[in-house]
Amino acid sequence: MPVITNIEDLKRIYRRRVPKMFYDYAESGSWTEQTFRENTSDFDEIRLRQRVAVDMSGRSTATKMIGQDVTMPVALAPVGLTGMQCADGEIKAARAAEKFGVPFTLSTMSINSIEDVAEATTKPFWFQLYTMKDTDFLSRLIERAKAAKCSALVITLDLQILGQRHKDLKNGLSAPPKLTPATIANLMTKWSWGLGMLGAKRRNFGNIVGHATGVSDAANLGAWTAEQFDPTLDWGKIAKIKEMWGGPVILKGILDAEDAKMALQVGADAIIVSNHGGRQLDGAISSIRALPSILDAVGDEVEVHLDSGIRKGQDILKAVAMGAKGTYIGRSFVYGLGAMGEAGVTKALEVLHKEMDISMALCGRRTISDLDRTILMIPENFEGRWQ
Ligand SMILES: Cc1cc2nc3c(=O)[nH]c(=O)nc-3n(C[C@H](O)[C@H](O)[C@H](O)COP(=O)(O)O)c2cc1C
Prior knowledge:
Blueprint: H1 7-17, H2 20-26, H3 34-45, E1 47-48, E2 63-65, E3 68-70, E4 74-76, H4 82-85, H5 89-100, E5 105-106, H6 114-120, E6 126-129, H7 135-147, E7 152-156, H8 166-171, H9 181-187, H10 191-198, H11 221-228, H12 235-245, E8 249-254, H13 257-265, E9 270-273, H14 287-298, E10 303-306, H15 313-322, E11 326-329, H16 331-362, E12 376-377
Parallel strand pairs: 4-11, 5-6, 6-7, 7-8, 8-9, 9-10, 10-11
Antiparallel strand pairs: 1-12, 2-3
Helix pairs in contact: 1-16, 5-16, 13-14, 15-16
The protein binds flavin mononucleotide.
Residues 25-26, 39, 77-80, 107, 109, 128, 156, 252, 274, 276-277, 279, 307-310, 329-332 line the site of flavin mononucleotide.
């Protein structure tokens, strides 16, 4: 067994084990992938201020996200097709998150259904909602999340229409994979993945197939999205969904201070500064670069979270020190899941936790509430002077 010390180690194993189609699906951004790349490289622009001779005993990374206790300010982001990265992937990731003490967010486009995950876990998880044209289906989805006792609804706002990811089109991404000569040749080199899939509870979209009427081809993500996602979504509809849900609502995909103010007006409990991991608007700024202006606009009035580009505990530390109350990891947990199943997700969380904890100590801080911008060295003009 190789010694795993960082998220990149998990990614290397993941790449060997998982079919190319699903590796490419996760490891890509839209169009030129500029935003995808800058999400990580912009974190590296910020430096940490080293402090010495500060008592670093009795440290804790524990805090709260939307009032819920978390072992560290990290949640698992909603990731579609997680159950294609590893058999029963959503169940495994949710269990790892529960044991570690961080929230798991189930995607609308998951393989395991809301009910599957509820049955396999003991604590409430969060449900991510894509808004659909089919309002009956939408309200049933919300009712199912309520029945499963999900403790927050994460409404994704940045995917009314799908950003193009070239590799998915070239690979003919589908769940389950369509058997073409190229996919068969690739699957023959991924026998442990294939064996797992033979015993998987599900191999297509568990929240949709058998629940949505008139869905012509749920096996194809692109077709389903183009056909069903609601292009007319606006703030009025978001307010109505919040009312239907009646519990905590987190609005995901905010990258602009004006939108953050609108989110505040519709009564969001938290917002996620996010560009969908660089998978939607290519050319948009990185989340970490967008964070300061959004915090300045609404940081005192609503909980501000961040995702996109987190691959190290130091990235979490930087976001939280800047003012985010929580962060989310997408690819970092997917790498672990594809590499080693539930144990791999646990490994990813352990790696990030250790990196964050030790770096926090080396900055001379012991708790999350001790963190502030004075531990950061932010380049002048980090946010950019855009016309
Ligand atoms: C493979 C993949 C699938 C995703 N599917 C969804 C989804 O179904 N719903 C959603 O709101 N966000 C989805 N996202 C975006 C993530 O929730 C999150 O915003 C992003 O992964 C954060 O960037 P990171 O991967 O660099 O951590 C997906 C991301 C990836 C990588």
